[in-house]
UniProtKB/TrEMBL annotation:
Residues 31-90, 473-496 are annotated as: Disordered. Keywords: Membrane, Signal, Transmembrane, Transmembrane helix. Residues 1-25 form the signal peptide. Residues 31-57, 474-496 have a biased composition (Low complexity). This is Carboxypeptidase regulatory-like domain-containing protein.
Length: 496
């Protein structure tokens, strides 16, 4: 997600109740992963980088190419050294934003192999004594699968726990977590080496479920792909907590009623996560500690076989900026209510996409819902109606033959045959409705429309006649009345 850092963070700060000034920093700088942390996932097909300018194109004239030596007197580049607690407090007083210290896991040559020393600190870097620490030990084996063990220890007066004689096998990893005020603060799983032990530092914070007074904001991406019979929707959120208090969300937001195939990114740990709520949609839960967090999930909605389809999606709290993208053919259109007109571009995989984005405002409290309309969607061709008419004729012929046989035996149609006739009638009525819609859209010409409509009406008339079949003279009269009623209704007010 390559949005300009100062714009994104300023948008987030503007949504919070406490005052905040513009921040001249990239979003990724707020919580860079350590060497033992996995890189964040990206949307499918390079969605997050779609439409982003190449980094080299933003360099001023005369600037050396990336990777070349710097000219004499040029300031050093790269991530600045970690700030100490005093400088972080001074920056917080100046900007109103909290610069969260990094959790770290580092090899220490002064520690023997198989030893892990953990220090638990608060937001200001002070040790937290006498607090329970959970160590999750996972052993992975191709033959036996995964086995898990959890042990608990308590920090000493210096906020430290020392674990010895730990396994250093390649399939063994260790995860650390501490609970405080209902929040869970953790370091993702890491392994130990055979050369030296490791030293870890985990920070924990005060926590609250009330977001109203917190410096929390969110950026979001919605990426849509057209499948054979559905629309795939992938959502990615980056949640920024720019204060020193962790947020404990339990926020549910709805997806369309006909959504299906919900799937979320695994490995989110015990902190912030998105859970499916059956019959409703998605819940944002867990712990949003100071820094940046990512969550990603996807789902599908069935295609309605119409030229336009609207998808309404509720959003989690404090959406400061939202981007919507859709893989699109030349005829497809993308419209998001309240957003600027979508622009055509391509992602890094060369796929053509439509893209639009908008920033939320403080007065509105961020975006609450988005309505996405895709136009120019492919619809079934004329051949489907011809095939269905032929299928209907087959059903009619078989039912008629059985009806004659049963009439010869002084018996009317049984329940099973009547059910088959009712199903055939309903299917043809549905296709009649779709034919009328296709005519209004201009998908079928007048000659094809007249031919298919006449065939549908004839098939419907026959089916209705057999459904309403009566003994002797009533049978023929009922057929004529049903056929006449259908034709009169179609000519005067077609279904739509």
């Amino acid at each position: 997600m390559r949005w300009t850092g100062c714009t994104a963070l300023a948008a987030i700060a503007s949504l919070s109740i406490t005052a905040a000034q513009a921040v001249q920093a990239q979003p990724a700088a707020s919580a860079q992963p350590t060497a033992d942390k996995a890189a964040p996932a990206q949307p499918a097909a390079g969605a997050a980088d779609a439409g982003a300018p190449d980094a080299a194109s933003e360099l001023p004239p005369g600037h050396p190419e990336v990777g070349q030596g710097l000219p004499s007197g040029h300031p050093p580049v790269g991530k600045p050294p970690a700030a100490d607690a005093a400088s972080r407090r001074a920056s917080e007083q100046l900007t109103g934003l909290f610069d969260a210290p990094d959790d770290t896991v580092q090899e220490d040559r002064g520690l023997p192999p198989g030893v892990l020393v953990l220090t638990v600190q608060d937001a200001d870097g002070n040790p937290v004594p006498r607090i329970s620490v959970d160590v999750d030990i996972v052993q992975s084996s191709v033959a036996k699968g995964d086995s898990r063990e959890r042990i608990s220890r308590e920090t000493d007066d210096a906020g430290t726990v020392r674990l010895e004689n730990l396994a250093i096998a390649g399939g063994t990893s260790y995860g650390i977590s501490v609970k405080r005020d209902g929040g869970t603060f953790s370091i993702p799983h890491f392994g130990l080496s055979a050369e030296a032990g490791k030293r870890a530092v985990l920070h924990i914070y005060d926590a609250t479920p009330n977001v109203s007074g917190l410096m929390v904001g969110t950026q979001g991406i919605v990426y849509l792909q057209l499948k054979q019979d559905s629309i795939s929707v992938e959502q990615l959120f980056q949640v920024f907590n720019l204060g020193r208090v962790a947020w404990l969300p339990n926020e549910t937001f709805a997806l369309p009623r006909d959504y299906k195939a919900f799937n979320k990114t695994e490995g989110m740990g015990e902190e912030m996560r998105f859970d499916e709520v059956k019959g409703t949609g998605v819940a944002l839960r867990g712990t949003v500690s100071p820094g940046r967090h990512e969550g990603q999930f996807r789902w599908q909605v069935p295609l309605h076989n119409e030229e336009r389809q609207t998808i309404r999606i509720e959003l989690p709290p404090r959406i400061a900026q939202m981007r919507v993208m859709a893989e699109a053919s030349k005829s497809m259109t993308l419209n998001v209510a309240g957003f600027p007109a979508a622009q055509r571009t391509q992602n890094r995989d060369g796929k053509k996409i439509l893209i639009t984005e908008m920033q939320g405002t403080r007065t509105e409290g961020g975006m609450k819902v988005i309505e996405i309309t895709l136009g120019g969607l492919p619809t079934p061709g004329v051949g489907r109606w011809i095939a269905l008419v032929l299928a209907g004729a087959t059903v009619i012929g078989g039912a008629a033959l059985n009806l004659v046989r049963r009439r010869d035996q002084d018996r009317g149609p049984d329940d099973e045959e009547r059910r088959e006739l009712l199903e055939a009638r309903n299917a043809l009525l549905d296709e009649f409705v779709e034919l009328e819609r296709a005519r209004k859209r201009g998908d079928v010409g007048p000659k094809t429309y007249d031919r298919v409509r006449a065939a549908l009406l004839d098939a419907l008339a026959r089916i209705v006649a057999m459904i309403e079949a009566r003994p002797a003279r009533g049978k023929a009269a009922g057929a004529r009345e049903a056929a006449g009623a259908l034709k009169a209704d179609a000519a005067g007010s077609p279904r739509s």
